[in-house]
Amino acid sequence: MRELPRLAGARAVVMTMGALHEGHATLIRAARRRVGPQGQVVVTVFVNPLQFGAGEDLDRYPRTLDADVELAAAAGADAVFAPSADEVYPGGEPQIRIAAGPMGTLLEGASRPGHFDGVLTVVAKLLHLTAPDIALYGQKDAQQLAVISRMAADLNFPVEITGVPTVREEDGLALSSRNRYLSAPERTTALALSAALFAARDRLAAEEALRARAASVGHAAQHRSAALAALGEDRAAADAHAVAYAAAGPPHGPSVARAAARAVLEDAARLDPPLTLDYLALVDPSDFTEIPDAYEGEAVLAVAAKVGTTRLIDNIRLVFGAGRPRTATAHRDSTTPQTGTAAHAGATGQHGTTPRDSRTTPAPAPATPPTTPQGPLGATR
Asked: d(Cα 213, Cα 370) in Å, to the nearest integer?
């Protein structure tokens, strides 16, 4: 890596653990777009033992270096850096490591103690070794992206950390190297992860649309609902009641999003094979703590579960308060294709912050909100 000549433009790095797929290719293409033809894209391939806990799949993690180099080249990489464990950790595991702090103990950190310490330690080493101007990570590993971003900011790493949106297969399943472990029935069950996230997104959109209508109608909708019911116009009355419900009370977006996602996951737990939920969490992206029901702004809905022996994660970004006047927050999104030629230079996994606003509007609301429970693949029950 030290002998690899720098080009006139910026250098971007995409860190992977190998077994590359279209999700990684999207990251590489995004990197190529960012640096342009005068820049340089380096892909690292390293299965990092520090981030695997006892009983996890380090030994069976797929290693396909030749195919990885080909994919990286086709996607636009200039070099693939694939060091051995002895090169990265000469003399064995390092005595000095980077601690992920409180964020590293939540969600994935709680399920996999020490995982993020291992991630940050190898990311720090690879940033030093590759010396990039930009490092790109997938948003599928949202908590990993958050702790890496925080490390770079807190420790003054001279690198820009950029997130790239999750790439999904046609059926909605987030691309992952671990998907290859799923049998056909297990894959069907695994679709519940993305279905749960999409159910929450759609339910939130309906809730925010109601609140937008309520803002223009106000409390008069409750009187309209009663009048329509008296005339036997049940469907119109129900619609007016829903608007009145949205107008009368504080925001319910987080609670309805959680409920919609949980309904899908509970159904999936009864499938054969079943989905075993690890966690479903709706969190502030700045620190990955659970958000309150009155929250406004961007949040991450994250899920982790096992299907058979395969553990999968997924997440989606939601914005609460979109149906109410507020200042919009812009987020960077970088993807696009270009191609290049990769050199095997000796030939780690993929892959911001929004302020919390806890304002509430204390007003009475109907006891039961309108809901639309959904089944394991997002279909209405």
From this structure: 15
Which residues, 6+ apart, have CB-to-CB distance to 200 below 8 Å?
A: 257, 258, 260, 261, 301, 316, 318
CA distance 259 to 252: 11
Whose tokens are 């608007």? That residue is 243
Q: Is 24 an annotated catalytic residue? A: yes
Instruction: Give one word for 368, left, alpha or beta, with left for phi > 0 and alpha for psi -120 to 50.
Output: beta
Tell which residue, 110, 22, 44, has the closest CA to residue 344.
Answer: 44
Cβ-count burial of 318 within 10 angstroms (0-12 exposed, 13-18 middle, 19+ buried)?
buried
Helices (H), 218-335: 220-230, 234-248, 253-268
Encoded tokens for 328: 């919009």
Can you tell me the distance from the alpha carbon of 168 to that of 107, in angstroms, rounded to the nearest whole number?
22
Catalytic site residue from 21, 24, 115, 252: 24
Question: What is the C-alpha separation between 373 and 192, in angstroms, rounded?
Answer: 14
Give Cα separations from 289 to 146, 197, 276, 350 (angstroms). 12, 18, 22, 22
| pLDDT attached to residue 65 | 95
For the whole model, what pTM was predicted? Answer: 0.76
Nearest Cα to Cα of residue 120 among 157, 85, 83, 73? 157
Give the Cα separation of 203 and 374 in Å (integer).
10
Q: How many CB atoms lie within 10 A of CB 250?
A: 13
pLDDT digits (tens, 9 = 90+) for 147-162: 999 999 999 999 999 9
> What pLDDT digit, counting tens, does each position of 345-368 carry?
544 444 333 333 333 333 333 333
Q: Phi first, then psi: give them for residue 174, nearest 5 degrees.
A: -65, 135
Segments of the chain scoring below 70 in pLDDT? 55, 213-251, 322-381
CA 48 to mean position of chain CA atoms? 21
Question: Which residue type does 366 have?
Answer: P
Work out the angle at residue 27's Cα, subtended by the Cα atoms of residues 24 and 31, and round it to the nearest 5 degrees: 140
- Strand, coil or helix: what is 199? helix
